[in-house]
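The methods section describes the discrete structure representation at length, but only in general terms. The central task, working out the structure tokens from the amino acid sequence alone, is never made concrete. Nothing conveys this as quickly as seeing an actual entry. For illustration, here is how one protein appears when written out as sequence plus structure tokens:
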Amino acid sequence: MNSCSVKILGAGSALLDILARVDDSFLSRYVEGEKGGMLLVDSAAQRRLIGRMEKSAISRAIGGSAFNTISALTSLGMKTSFLGKLGKDENGVYYTDAYRKLGGDPSSFKYSSEAPTGTCLSLVTPDSERTMRTDLGASSTLCADDVSENDFAGVTHVHMEGYLLFFLDTVRKILSLAKRNSCTVSLDFASFEVVRMFRKELPELLEKYVDVIFANEDEARAFCGQDSFSPEAAADELSRYCSTVVVKLGREGSFIRENSIDYRIPPVLADAVDTTGAGDLWQGGFLYGYLNGCGVEAAGRMGSVLGSEIVRVFGAQIPPARWGAIREQFQTISQQYKQGCKHG
């Protein structure tokens, strides 16, 4: 696969992940809202939750939804950059340096002198589910004026997280510049709460700008309003807006519809330790195959590989030693796909 002509720009919240192991009683006692989703909180509320935990149960890593996807693509050898905002603080320096060391282009990072680098508290229960409470910090100050043509230099694809919908003017500026620069666009719905909040705005944005939709079951249900969910029915609704729809089904794999053709992608099963970043990394695998011209079926299989890899570890970063073996698996999947096309 030759990815030299492809560059992916991620757009979203650049957040430092704070990962904490808790039990269900902790959630019911101290955490408002539904288990498994994401809600915005202020720094004081986040500090109160952290203060109730054992320090040994907490770890930190660079993250953010779209950034997790971009980080995976960078580790796979793709050219990437990221449009997000950090604080001019120690965490911001750490974040920038870590991305540069991965091989990413940090030139599209923006920086705030007033707000600190944002943080996402990810509460992981014994069933490996994560519930997120996020203090956006500097990432919430990313505005339309921060975004310029320079951010799209050499970019061929833009991957955006749904959490940016809280800043609709910024979203519209990014998407319009993406289309002006002939970029394809993928949008991760990100959270069922986000879909509920922006259900009225999403159809116009999807139809006008988006080429690939990523949604899990809860997000697809929130958009489609189905009492009895099925991925096929979700794809019927979502494919009204763009040509490629991906419904992620967790341990059941994924369902993809592209130009009215359906694909059932099996999962690569693993003993899950933590589902933090599972959907984000799945998307990284998919976009690697999709943007390298492997076709959506092979791309979906690559997504399953990365989804399986990330749930085996705590947090949203695959250990560096694993990437060589992952690239070999992707090469095998690509070759199998090409051989199947020849025989077909």
In short: The CA atoms of residues 10 and 82 lie 5 Å apart.
